[in-house]
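As described in the Methods, two query proteins were run sequentially through the folding procedure within a single session, without resetting any intermediate state between them. The first query and its resulting structure tokens are shown here.
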Amino acid sequence: MQAVIDTLQTIGIFLLYLAARFAVLLVVLAVLTVVFVAGLAVVRLAGRARHHAMGLARVDGLVWRAGVYFAPGHAWLQTRDGGTLRVGLDDLAQHVLARITEVILPEPGQAIRAGEPAAVIRCGKRRAMIPAPVAGRVVAVNRRVVGNPARLHTDPYGGGWLYAVQPEDSAYARLPYGEDSRPWFSREAIRLSQFFEHQLGMAAADGGELVAPAPSLLTESQWAEMTESFLQASR
């Protein structure tokens, strides 16, 4: 009888030990969950703060930025110290140029002419010529985006800039700027939605969010039409 009691006590102690270990594990998991959720919240708040500081907003499913000029070919220009302009590609261009695999930029010191090719973006076997939005001389290029083309997608209005140019005149000041550019950007976002809908026979917009199919679904002629219409536009 004593042996049975001792066995039950041993089992009880073992079960209590397991319960205690399980309770500790639950506490650790709860703490880690709280830390993870708090960290995620901090990251989101930091992201929102950065977006707010940069003047980013969603316009018809695409990300638009205040405080920059927008060229017809969907390049943005930001004035910098010394009168230079930093040039990048807006969010609509990111939807046109999905899955960027290579970025070829002009060399520092190179003279560029408005409307003439200044950069090349490759998306797999396809490539798009990116015209210069202004005339001038290149003073800097973003080597990081050359080494990591994905930066064009992940941070198009920030770290994904392409090059900086010293403009030869102030013609860029006539481009849509700030809040005045929002209606134009909205029309362009709708036009891109309609392009995909027409070319691929599917609804490209749903609830105000752009649902752009992968450009890889387009034929070569459709790709050429898309890049010419949106990236080389002169209007």
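Immediately afterward, the second query was submitted; its sequence and tokens are:
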Amino acid sequence: MTITIRQIHPTFVGDVSGVDLTRPLSHDEVAAIEAGMDQHAVLVFHDQQFTDDQQVAFSRNFGEIELAVAGNLTKENEKRLSLNFADVSNLDRDNKLLARNDRNRMFNLGNRLWHSDSSFRAVPAKYSLLSGRIVPAEGGNTEFADMRAAYDALDARTKAAIEDLVCEHSLIYSRGSMGFTELSEEERRMFRPVRQRLVRTHPVTGRKSLFLSSHIGRIIGWEIPEARDFLRDLTEHATQREFVHAHRWRQYDLVIWDNRQTMHRVRRFDDTRDVRDMRRTTIAGDGPTIAQVA
């Protein structure tokens, strides 16, 4: 079969058919998927019954896998999955539901905020590849926002004002906005802020996009209240309904998104009752968006 991509939102998101991602892919198939990502920013594949090894092998077609270290509170000896995976489930290492007051559960509720994966790293992520192994019957959708269309819709004055702005990203900011502030000194060092451009240019298409995320806490050179007010307005603009697609998960869906062109968030579900076993491989970016300060 030939890979076919059908756009399912007015500005982005492609539904893909004609390919089994669990087997080795040809060069042409990988190229078709990459071209689809450049155009649509989010691709949805149904009925991909991955093992962990198969998901890792498929992911490596697109670059180096970013190891799941320094992005959460789970210690290495507590992890359920290998370091090739970001475990965005609601399960502990024994595959039991996290307790309501579990510290890791509280921290992971930050995934319900609009964000871009790994924007809190000096080298932010390229692609995220999320496999739905067990999905809840109700809720738990993932929403995506097209940051290219959001940028295009800005007026010329705003585009000029933001062109050279640099923001500071950290998990301290996103979790702090939810009231999760009790971090150890070691955790604060691990989550130390990094700097990213507010406007990014895609290396293939040349399209500009907003690089927004709940991880942003400052605009360099601005007073914090003014910066956060401005960022709130930009985020409200970028997540208007016309820029957003909600993916309702089916078991064994694989969704790939380009963090350079989108934001996303998971929607509420009863995570103290329903299992949501989601396993994410993340492709590391090619470099920082701006030089970091020491």
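The chain is about 25% helix and 25% strand. We note this only descriptively and draw no conclusion about the first query from it.
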